[in-house]
Amino acid sequence: MTDHLFRYIDEETMNQSDLNAPTWQLSERARKLTSSAIREILKVTERPEVISFAGGLPSPATFPAEEMRAASDRILRDSPAAALQYSATEGYLPLREWVAQRYSVNGAQIRASQVLITTGSQQALDLLGKVLVCPESPVLVETPTYLGALQSFSMYEPRYVQVPTDDNGLIPEALTPELTKGARLLYAQPNFQNPTGRRLPIERRRALAEFAKSAPFPVIEDDPYGALDYRGEPLPTMLSMSPDHIVHLGSFSKVLAPGLRIGYIIAPEELHFKLVQAKQATDLHTPSFTQRIVHEVVKDGFLDTHVPKIRALYRDQCEAMLGSLERYMPEGVTWNRPEGGMFIWVSLPKHIDTMKLLEAAVAQNVAFVPGGPFFANEAQHNTLRLSFVTVPPAKIDEGVARLAELIRARV
Amino acid sequence: MTDHLFRYIDEETMNQSDLNAPTWQLSERARKLTSSAIREILKVTERPEVISFAGGLPSPATFPAEEMRAASDRILRDSPAAALQYSATEGYLPLREWVAQRYSVNGAQIRASQVLITTGSQQALDLLGKVLVCPESPVLVETPTYLGALQSFSMYEPRYVQVPTDDNGLIPEALTPELTKGARLLYAQPNFQNPTGRRLPIERRRALAEFAKSAPFPVIEDDPYGALDYRGEPLPTMLSMSPDHIVHLGSFSKVLAPGLRIGYIIAPEELHFKLVQAKQATDLHTPSFTQRIVHEVVKDGFLDTHVPKIRALYRDQCEAMLGSLERYMPEGVTWNRPEGGMFIWVSLPKHIDTMKLLEAAVAQNVAFVPGGPFFANEAQHNTLRLSFVTVPPAKIDEGVARLAELIRARV
C-alpha cells in the first residue's frame, strides 16, 4: 500500500501562504503530522520516464474488471434499494458469512459475528488504534514494520516498542515481560511482510499464537499478502491456532482490486462489538454496493482460479528482480528471496544513507522507498524496499542496473 | 442518518458470555462507549407491523438506480484500471472540481484544492474531531444537535458546551467570549437541522459568518439537507459569506443515495491539508469507483431535475404528518413546521419522559426517537423527533393517531 502514501498527497497546498488564512489551534495529534521528505522526492516518480520500485500498487492486469462489471449490473438491476440504502455497520451479512466460512479451516470455527467489514485494511488499523490505544500506551511492533500501521496508530499517540526480528521475522522469545509490560497490542504481518517480504515460520506462529492465549493484550495478525504465496502452500494463520485470541485483518485489495476499499477484521465478539461502535462513529458503514460487488464476484469460488494467476505473475516479476539484483549489485549489498508478496528488502553497507541515495536515484529516473520510515524508533538508514509488481521485467532489469551503478559508486 | 444509529447495531453479541473470552484493556474513549437503551427498544422497529418515524432513511423511491447502473457500466468498460486502483486521498479530481464549481456562487470562489471527498459526511465529522479536538477541549454545539456528530467528536473526548438556541436555531449573540473560551470548533446545521428541522435565518447566517472571520476556531457548517428546501428557495450558505473561514460539509446521501457513502469537506487549504493527512491514516481514500459513479451521474446537471422530485415527495409527506399532528395531538403538545428536510421536532408537557413513552409506543407498534440523546449536556426529556420520509402518508396518519392517543393518556 505504501506507494499510495507517497505518491498522492497534494503537496502544492503546503506552499501557499495566505495572509487571510485563519490560524486555528489543532489537536496535539494533528500538530505531529508533518510533511515527509520522501514524499517530496517521490512526487516526481509519477513522470512516465521514471522506473519506480517504490509502488505498492497491484498490477491492474490482475483486476477482474469484467466480472465486476457484470456483478455491478446484476446488483443494481435486482436489488438497487438495498445496495444504495444505509446498511449495517458490521457489513453485508452474506460477505461476513463468506469470510467466516473461508477462515473456518484446520479445525477453527470462525463465526460471522466475529467479522467486521472495513473501508480497506487501513481502516481496520485506525479502528484498532481508536479502541485500544491511549496516549503514551505501549504498542509493540516489528522491526521494521508497515509504515501505514505506524501512521494509523500514531493518531492515538502511543509509545512504540520495537520487537526484535531476524531474517525469519519476529522473534517470539523476545516477548519478555519487561518488553511487553503495559502493552495495548502487538502488531505483526506474518506473511511476506511489508516492507521486508519475510514470512514467519510455522514454529514461530505456534509460539506467538500460544503467547496470545495468555497475553493481556491482543496480537494483531495483519495478512494482506497471505494469498500471494508463490508455491500455493500457505502456512496456517495464527487465527486458526488461537481463534479466540488473535485479531486477524484481511483485505480484498491484493486479490481483487484495492480501489473498492474492502477489508475486514476478525476479532473476539467483545472486541468486535467495540470496533463496530467505533466504526459507526467513523463512517457509519462501508458502502453496501461495493461489499455486494465483492461478494457477488467471490461467492462461487472465483478466487480459486483467479489468485493463482496473480501469484504466477508476481512470482515471475520477483524472479526477474532477483536475477537483476544478482547480476548488477556490488559486494556488500544483501537482500532476501521472498516466497510471496510484493517486496524485496535490501541492505547496503552501513555508511550508505538510502534517503540521500534516493535523491541521486530519482535524478537518474529510478525510485524506491528508503527503509528508515518503516522503523518505529531507531531506524536502519542503510535499508530500502523494492516492489516488483508494477514494473514489467524488461524495465525491472534496466532500473536495477541503474540503481546498482549508483550504489557501486558509494560502496 | 440517526435511524441508522439505532437500527443496525448487532446487539446479540453483547449478551454472549464466554469464559475463555480475553480481557484486554481498552482505550479510555472505548470504555466510554456504552450500549444504548434506545437502541434496544428500537431494535423491534424492523418488524413490518411497526410504523416507524424513527428512521432517517431517504426514500429508496428517490434513488436514481438506472442512472447509476448505466454509469457503473460505462466506468468499468472505459476506465476499469483507474476506477479499481488505489487513488488520491483528496478524492477524484473531476468530482472535487464539480463540488468547487457548485459552491462558487454569490461571488464566492471555491477552489478544488479546498475540497476533500469523504466516506460519507460521518467521516468528515470524525476527521474534524481527529484534527481539532484534544481531551477536555471545549466543543460548541447547538441545543439540541445532531447525535451522530456527538458520537464522532466524543471519540476525541471533548468537553461539550451547549450554545443556546430558539425556534430559529442557534443564537449568534449567545457566542460570548465567556461561552466560547478555548473552543476548538463550533458545530452547526443551518438547514433543516437534525433533529429539530429548524432553518437558520439569513441575518443569523450573516452574523455567524462574520463571527467566523475573527474566531480563533472554525465554524463548521454541516449541510446534508440544504437541497431539500420545499420551496426551492435556498438561503445562502455561510461558506458563500466567509469562504476562507467556514468549514462546510456536504453529502450526496440525501440527493442521490446514502449507500454510496460519498460526502465532502470544503475547508481553507491549511486545514484541508491536515484533514487529508488524517484521512490517509484513516482509510487511505474513498473508493475511486463510487466517486466516479457520483460524478458520472451528476456532471451534466442531473440534480437540477432530480432534486425537485425529492423535494416534492418529502414536502407532501411533511404536509401529511403536519395534518395528522393537527388532527390528533392533544393540547400542550407543540411542534414546528419545517420548510425542508426530513424531521419534525415535538415538545410534550414537561412531565412526560419520551424515553418511557417510546416503550409504550413500541408496544403499540409505532416508533420515534426520544429527544434526550440529541442534547450534549442537559437534556430536555419531553422532546421527540419524527421523520416523515420513510412511511407513506396513509401510514403516517395511522401512526400519529396511535402516538397521540398514548400522549393524551399521559397529559
How many strand segments of chain A? 15
Poorly predicted runs of chain A:
1-17
From the helix content, strand content and strand pairing of chain A, which structural class follows?
Answer: alpha/beta
At CATH level 3, the topology of the largest domain in chain A is Aspartate Aminotransferase, domain 2
* Helical proportion of chain A, percent range: 40-55%
Beta-strand residue percentage of chain A:
5-15%
What is the overall shape of chain A? globular
> What is the first-to-last residue Cα distance of chain A?
30 Å
CATH superfamily of the largest domain in chain A: Type I PLP-dependent aspartate aminotransferase-like (Major domain)
Strand order of the largest sheet of chain A: 2-10-9-8-7-3-4
Q: Sheet bearing the most strands of chain A, described?
A: 7 strands, mixed
Show the largest interface: A-B, 97 and 97 residues
Tally of domains of chain A: 2
Overall pLDDT metric of chain A: 92
Assembly type? homodimer
CATH class wording of the largest domain in chain A: Alpha Beta
Roughly how many Å is the radius of gyration of chain A?
21 Å
Number of helical regions of chain A: 16
The CATH architecture classification of the largest domain in chain A is 3-Layer(aba) Sandwich
Cofactor (chains A, B): pyridoxal 5'-phosphate
Keywords (chains A, B): Aminotransferase, Pyridoxal phosphate, Transferase
GO molecular function (chains A, B): pyridoxal phosphate binding; transaminase activity
Subunit structure (chains A, B): Homodimer.
